[in-house]
From TrEMBL:
<dbReference type="InterPro" id="IPR003439">
    <property type="entry name" value="ABC_transporter-like_ATP-bd"/>
</dbReference>
<protein>
    <submittedName>
        <fullName>ABC transporter ATP-binding protein</fullName>
    </submittedName>
</protein>
<keyword id="KW-0813">Transport</keyword>
<dbReference type="InterPro" id="IPR017871">
    <property type="entry name" value="ABC_transporter-like_CS"/>
</dbReference>
<keyword id="KW-0067">ATP-binding</keyword>
<keyword id="KW-0547">Nucleotide-binding</keyword>
<keyword id="KW-0029">Amino-acid transport</keyword>
<dbReference type="InterPro" id="IPR003593">
    <property type="entry name" value="AAA+_ATPase"/>
</dbReference>
<comment type="similarity">
    <text>Belongs to the ABC transporter superfamily.</text>
</comment>
<feature type="domain" description="ABC transporter">
    <location>
        <begin position="6"/>
        <end position="237"/>
    </location>
</feature>
<dbReference type="GO" id="GO:0005524">
    <property type="term" value="F:ATP binding"/>
</dbReference>
<dbReference type="InterPro" id="IPR027417">
    <property type="entry name" value="P-loop_NTPase"/>
</dbReference>
<dbReference type="Pfam" id="PF00005">
    <property type="entry name" value="ABC_tran"/>
</dbReference>
<dbReference type="InterPro" id="IPR052156">
    <property type="entry name" value="BCAA_Transport_ATP-bd_LivF"/>
</dbReference>
């Protein structure tokens, strides 16, 4: 890989006595988009949580932006420049949209222009229309957009997105894909977990397929699209 921002090597993790990840390897290049694909329960969310320090890593290494971050506290990983958007949209429902964005504001790093609410409203026009309104009144898709926008206010170098298209109406899925491509255009690397091949193919350069906690395929998105055996064996089609 030319210039990886995130390198995960052989990580193992689980919940209590249950082992869930059995040596996961993946690499995210600077400014690239990678999709971690697999069926329900394959280990996608667990991988992202382990990278983010939300679950103890029992073995293996995680290198982010030049530091070994395995088992750092999540806030420290976030401060190092890795953003995380969980599956269950975490917004503050008693704050307005604009106030939710302010909560996420952190100093910029790495010479890129800092994110501002105005720049984010260009990417997420539906948030612009709702900026003064309470976040409690938002649809699931709008909450997902707001969570991503708030994460960007932290000026991350890379973002982990857990199933960004799940449960969204088709028109919102399109907005979500545009938002991911815009993040990439701004130089932010994105690792997303995803079940939908259509969504992943629309945004990702590289694909990983996980099943029962092991990576079964690693390659370009084009190679995954061309590999019918892998798709039918490990993905929901
Ligand atoms: N908090 C938990 N405690 C115990 N086992 C868990 C916990 N969370 C997940 N698991 C188990 O870990 C395995 C991987 O789950 P994970 O959530 O990582 O899958 P996933 O690929 O993200 O799928 P999904 O699309 O369902 O989120 C599953 O067998 C699941 O039952």
């Amino acid at each position: 890989m030319a210039d990886p921002v995130l390198e995960v090597s052989g990580i193992t993790a689980g919940y209590g006595p249950a082992e869930v990840l059995f040596g996961v390897d993946l690499t995210l290049e600077r400014g690239a988009v990678a999709a971690l694909m697999g069926r329900n329960g394959a280990g996608k969310s667990t991988t992202l949580k382990a990278i983010m320090g939300l679950l103890p890593v029992r073995g293996g290494r995680i290198r982010f932006a030049g530091a070994e971050i395995a088992n750092w506290a999540p806030y420290r990983i976030a401060r190092a420049g890795l953003g995380y958007v969980p599956e269950d949209r975490r917004i503050f429902t008693d704050l307005t949209v604009a106030e939710n964005l302010e909560v996420g504001r952190r100093a910029a790093r790495g010479g890129r222009p800092p994110w501002t609410p105005e720049r984010l409203y260009e990417i997420f026009p539906n948030l612009a229309e709702m900026r003064g309104r309470s976040a409690a009144a938002m649809s699931g898709g709008e909450q997902q957009m707001l969570t991503i926008a708030r994460t960007l206010m932290g000026n991350p170098d890379a973002v982990l997105l857990d199933e960004p298209s799940e449960g969204l109406a088709p028109v919102i899925v399109e907005l979500m894909a545009e938002a991911v491509l815009r993040m990439k255009a701004e130089g932010i690397a994105v690792l997303l977990s995803e079940q939908s091949l259509d969504f992943a193919a629309a945004v990702a350069d590289r694909a990983y397929v996980i099943e029962r906690g092991s990576i079964r395929f690693a390659g370009s998105m084009e190679a995954l699209e061309a590999d019918e055996a892998i798709r039918t064996t490990y993905l929901t089609v």
